[in-house]
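Lecture 7 notes: from sequence to structure.
We start with the chain below.
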Amino acid sequence: MSDFDELQGVIQRHAERRQAEVRACETFLQALYHALRSASGPGLPLNNVTLEFTPDPSGRLRPTPTGGFHAAWLRLGLCEVLVRVRRLDGAFQGEYGEGGVFRLDSTGEDDLLRLARRILRDVTATYAGEHHDSSLSRLN
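Predicted structure tokens for the same chain:
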């Protein structure tokens, strides 16, 4: 068997697992979108939140290998924030915006609302200039 044939076989053998992971991550991103829409509280939906799935800009292989990140742009009114998420040890681990990270072992409504509110606060702080990376603020 050639190296090429071996690669094709591995990709095919693990296709179901990868597809299940894609569905789980996309479902998580959709749930986060809905949490952002309701982050202002009951009866106060944020109507100017949209979701657009996108290939992970850091991804170097397609299809995404098991454990790889899946991404979406979340438009929050006048800005957009890239959210990347993957499954790791049964939890959802992700990144958003300018250095935001999260890990959720549980994805209940309250967990997602807390994450949505944290994303909103962090993005607000970034635009307000309250996040300063010391390595970026040095002149030399």
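Points to note: Confidence is low (pLDDT under 50) at residues 134-140. The first helix runs from residue 3 to 13.
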